[in-house]
Amino acid sequence: MIKKINLFILTLVIIFMNTQYAYAYVHKNWAQAEVLKIIFRKLEVCTGSNALEWATKEVSYWLNERALTDEFCNEPAIIADYDKEVDVGSVKRGRAAANYGDTRNLKFGKTYTHARLTVSRKFIIKNLLDENGKGIDTGGSDETSNCKTKTLTDGMYGFNLPSAPSPNTWTEEVYKYDTIPVVDGADPDDTGPSEEMTVYYVNGISDDDDEDEYSKSYFCLDEECGTGGLGVWWYCFLEEGCSSGLNKGAIGMSIPTDQDNFIPKDDIVLIFKLKNPYTVKEIAPRLKLSFGTKKGVAVNEVGVSANRENNWVVDPEAKDGKCQFRMGYFHVLIQLRNGRKNGPKTGDWLGFEPG
């Protein structure tokens, strides 16, 4: 008699595609990631969570205060607690990309319903070129019809400007969490390669925050970051919140800010509800991770806003000719299955379809 295989399938979606207060992504597009390197820091499964209750009504400070508590992850069982960088973009669809952690901490008879995932705020992306060697077309000006990721340098933070202060402060290390660099658009006919580029989750607020309580990020408008402006980066959970953010998967997350005392500044903590609960039976289950990065790279041409009586007004026709890259959609399939050899073949997607 063939025993029924018990498993849970968890689809995690991290989306670096958020609205912000001073600029609008009027011209934007997504592309397959040829490279998408993510640093996993910790993975836990939980018997329950009330993260969604707080995410729908609380500000960044209170979300961050609870993100690492048992309130957000009831009776947490640690699967992994170490750093591991995985290039999920280099893996073909449906193939297991990494083994991460140990399931022996899961307790017999316990039913797990949620997961808590901690990742680094640093990501490395590279957009896949099309069959003609072209990059991503934002749908805006000709200058952004062939956007290609480019190696990030201190110069993109203003280090090389004559006005740069001394000692070296206008650098990636100093301003990586509160400055958003841009890249010059490639010539529309250029078929040169794209490059690996580092992007970060910048400091921001939740859609329920008072923007005056948090510092604003600097949005560069040229590749040397000599011109730009301040704006607030919003992170949202629900579609009705601000039509973006983590509303596609997470039910709670820590909001990266420069005023947080609860979450390590280099981390993001995400809470997800499992697609199906998993009850531990017999022996420790096997765990496999698979990934989808169909829209793993996002790029936009910034539409500049105007301040009219302290109200930011979007100019839908504004085009600056610069490509602003960020991480797009990142899908993870986590499979737990009974530790028997007659289970599903490694790498089966079992109904998961990357976006």
Describe it for me?
The chain is mainly β and 355 residues long. It is built from four helices and 21 strands. Helix content is 6%, strand content 37%. Strands 3, 4, 5, 7, 10, 15 and 16 form a seven-stranded antiparallel β-sheet that branches. It is globular. The model is unreliable at 1-24, 243-247, 306-314 and 341-355 (pLDDT under 50).
Low-confidence stretches: 1-24, 243-247, 306-314, 341-355
Mean model confidence by pLDDT: 76
Order of helices and strands: EEEHHEEEEHEEEEEEEHEEEEEEE
- Bin the helical content: under 10%
Number of helices: 4
Strand residues, percent: 35-45%
Number of domains: 1
Summarize the structure.
The chain is 6% helix and 37% strand. It has 355 residues and is mainly beta.
Could you give the topology of this structure?
Layout: E1 7-15, E2 23-31, E3 33-46, H1 51-55, H2 60-66, E4 77-80, E5 84-87, E6 96-98, E7 111-127, H3 172-175, E8 179-180, E9 183-184, E10 197-200, E11 205-206, E12 217-220, E13 228-231, E14 234-235, H4 239-242, E15 252-253, E16 267-279, E17 286-292, E18 297-308, E19 311-314, E20 322-327, E21 329-337
Parallel strand pairs: 8-12, 11-14
Antiparallel strand pairs: 1-21, 2-18, 3-4, 3-5, 3-7, 6-17, 7-10, 7-16, 9-20, 12-13, 15-16, 17-21, 18-19, 18-20
Summarize this structure as a short list of keywords or feature phrases.
seven-stranded antiparallel beta sheet, 355 residues, five-stranded antiparallel beta sheet, 21 strands, globular, mainly beta, disordered C terminus
